Fold each of these.
Amino acid sequence: SREVWPVAYPRGEVRPADFRLVDVPVPEPGTGEVLVRNTWTSVDAALRLRLRETAPPGYFPAFPLGRPLDGVMTVGEVVASHADGFAAGDTVWHAAGWRDYAVVAAGQPALGGVGTLRRLDVRAAPAQAYLGALGANGLTAYAGLLHVAGLRDGDVVWVSAAAGAVGSLVAQIAKLRGHRVIGSAGSAAKVRYLLDEVGVDAAFDYRAGPLPDLLAEAAPDGVDVYFDNVGGDHLRAAIGALRPHGRVAICGMISEYAAERSAPGPDNLMLAVTKSLTIRGFRASAMAHLIPEMTREVGAWIRAGRLRYRETVVDGLERAPAALAGLLRGDNTGKTLVRITR
Ligand code: NDP
């Protein structure tokens, strides 16, 4: 059985040499545990935050070196169960990813409850969808937009990293709720994807010019809600473009994850006073109670063909580190997944 272990904390870009593929015996499940053969495993921007000597205070701790990553979503099939409520053949999700086989204790909270061992309905959607639109990404988009940003009728919404896993769901949920939506991403091809497939009203490539100008062109009258996946210059531009009583849901700040030291904050924060803005961070891991509601609503949109998702699939567990490096560079469109077995 193979496991991917971090062996060095990346400096700047993630390199495959920061990881090692290790052969270990298939673990034995004890009482209350199941043995899972993982089939798909998730690749997430937020992993970068834990691949550092110290993770941000209050966040999940840094991943220890020389051990498998605990706290990465994955799906697989139960091959042996000593836990009530689970049987061989069940498809499940859990948080012991980036390895072929995992022993998981039923009911043991993982990732704040979002990654606790859970049986999946694979008649409703393929297993890997539970790593994206019907999983933690769906929860993040749904909870952040509807419960954190406090969408109101008529709000104009800007989503950054809009062609990514979380962003493409945020953009679509906002459209489904009847909003005007602006999406930004890092290439012309992604802009086309946003306009043609995600269905946003306007989109721009943030590398194509000064961000405030690009945003003003896409949203001449400003925005009411900014869903922030990027931080830095994007957050600054949003604060400039928000209308009075505008709201920011801070989901993530990917532009800063590889930085050795944190960047100074936006220099225009006084506008939060003058425009009575609300800036709220959130963690999907604290919102596991919304999983049933999210699954119902997002599931219904998917079945009705009203919400679509793309996947960037990388084949082979050994390529998980390269897949993460690719995501951080922006190679992906939609959800980044590693297919461990067919
Ligand atoms: P994505 O699928 O969105 O991939 C990340 C994307 O970020 C890349 O495709 C790239 O696209 C973009 N990007 C990378 N570097 C930069 C940069 N310097 N400036 C602008 N864009 C950049 O990843 P996820 O869906 O996993 O994560 C998206 C965000 O959501 C992250 O900030 C993550 O931390 C956050 N998150 C927060 C959660 C929470 O509970 N609050 C839970 C899950 C995720 P491009 O080509 O457009 O540059």
Note: Residues 44-46, 137, 140, 161, 163-167, 185-187, 190, 229-230, 251-252, 254-255, 282-285, 327-328, 330, 332, 336 surround NDP (CB under 6 Å).
Amino acid sequence: AWSQIPQGPPDAILGITEAFKKDKHPQKINLGVGAYRDDKGKPYVLPSVYQAEQQVIHQNLDKEYAGITGVPEFTKAAALLAYGPDSTPLKEGSIAITQSISGTGALRIGGAFLQRFYPGAKTIYIPTPSWANHKAVFSDSLLEVKQYRYYNKDTIGLDFDGMVADIKNMPKGSIILLHACAHNPTGVDPTEDQWRAISDAVKEGDHFPFFDMAYQGFASGDTDKDAFALRHFVKEGHFPCLAQSFAKNMGLYGERVGAFSIVTASPEEKARVDSQIKIIVRPLYSNPPVHGARVASTILNDPALNKQWLGEVEGMATRIIKMRALLKENLEKLGSKQKWNHITDQIGMFAYTGLTAEQMSKLAEEHSVYATKDGRISVAGITSDNVGRLAESIYKITG
Ligand code: PLP
Ligand code: TYF
């Protein structure tokens, strides 16, 4: 039956791990996938996660199905983390929320919901560039995917004027996807003032904002600061929807813990939206897995563990910031003629180096340093031990 099926290409990001595994170089470096590593290059299970997990295990809970929208203590706390205790719609009970299969699943539920119910044109605008999966998720949701200007190659920074101009030129009532913080892949975020102007432009066009928040806490080390854009939009009277992931900020990658929420106009509207989210989720996967949500819920709801966790998030963010500085310092010490300020200016898990696809291939083939072709490196994969060799490899390629 499948003789006509063509071979598909590997995932642009996850495919790198395959190439890395095949390399025999004893000091090979993997900066492909965005997953946090400790300073020894090892995956990091947060101590707060370990402790929460022990608590969950010792409760001897049953393994019954969760409801369609997941573990209620988890979704309640997730909404509070994102929208904040001062959020008016949260206090009024007008935010619909469901647990999801991590951030990707949240985006996919959002795509399905908008495709089915959004009253305007079913076109979503994503930034250029964006996380590669955005286009795939929304196309598979049968939305038309278009792009707006975001990154300026020449300044290696935000194309703020281009972005605002594109928002103003979108047809009235368009759907716009915004990275809430720590933009993937560029590490370039708008400033708070720029977010205010973006909010105004989105309002002027009567557009619908869809926030993707996969890195709350990872940008600044502070979960409240990183929620600025979302909270500002809500305060300004927008009714956004939101995809949340706990993969990065809790290191729960494989547990697939996330949430999808929509700010509605009233508790009554929320109830109707909730009912339709359930109808979308039911035939997709019926109901979500419980273990990771119980762990996240324990951390979010236990004040002592919560405080500990926030310290650990800050610790991860701080190590990444330190590695950015070390990489820049090492490149400068080698006598690199290029400017590397963007490495320390950018935030979040990634640095967008400005290296070309050709240079990235050389980096892999000649130096066994693996990262995506667009020049993105996962700073979380840099360690005190490999940063010297990494800088030398980049220096040899760029001069
Ligand atoms: N959105 C962005 C921008 C991401 O970088 C990621 C990857 O971590 C996700 C969403 C969702 O990831 P996950 O499905 O692992 O939560
Ligand atoms: O951009 C990254 O590296 C992370 C992880 O299909 C990821 O967001 C990458 C690709 C993918 C799923 C997750």
Note: The pocket of TYF (ligand 2) is lined by residues 11, 13-14, 33-34, 131, 133, 184 (CB under 6 Å).
